[in-house]
Amino acid sequence: MHISGCGCFRILWLAVGPEQETSQTSAAPKSAERQQNMNCLNASFVFHQQDGEVTKQYYAEMNSRGVSGQIAVALFRAQKRSSRAKDYRRGKYRRAAYDVKQWSMSELCRLLALHGKALGIRWGWKQDPKTVFGEEPSWVLYRELPNGQVSFHSQDRGAGPEYSGDWDGKQLSKERIIAFCDSVAAENDVMQERLSL
Q1: Exposure check for the chain: N or C terminus, fewer CB within 10 A?
Q2: Residue 144: which H helix or E strand, with range?
Q3: From edge to edge, which strands make up the β-sheet containing 38-41?
Q4: 148 — pLDDT class (breaks 50, 70, 90)
Q5: Phi and psi (nearest 5°) for 121?
């Protein structure tokens, strides 16, 4: 399996192994065979699939796209793990998913503290008295994306500023993060195309 970027992420799925080749497949040029087996990846595909290797390769590709890509990965990972944790009923998988979500939120805060102001990113923490963890009100990490607000609940407040805004009342974080990741990938591809002209 191999991923490379060009327009959108691409993954090579080899449908026929060398031991299964027929005279037709061995006669076809390798590049044509590869082209037939390439499937375009986008953030939604990576989010909903279950292959950890595909997800890791997607993260590596996005991280290579600079600060915007790193921020996109932290958002994507936090949302994906949060969604998965809700799928698990109880036990170690649920706890592990929430642990990765918390780590991703910390990484997002670190990146935003370093680059948020220069990038004009509005973000911060606000307490949510309506959602309680134990006996304590929860905290919410808000981040404004070009396509709308995204937020994550947490038992503890992380590093970063107070958020002066309010929740927009829409539960669209997953959809907005997926769209944001695709826009970061597309923007970076356009920049690469301009540089190669």
Answers
A1: C
A2: strand 136-145
A3: 3-6, 8-12, 38-41
A4: very high
A5: -95, 125
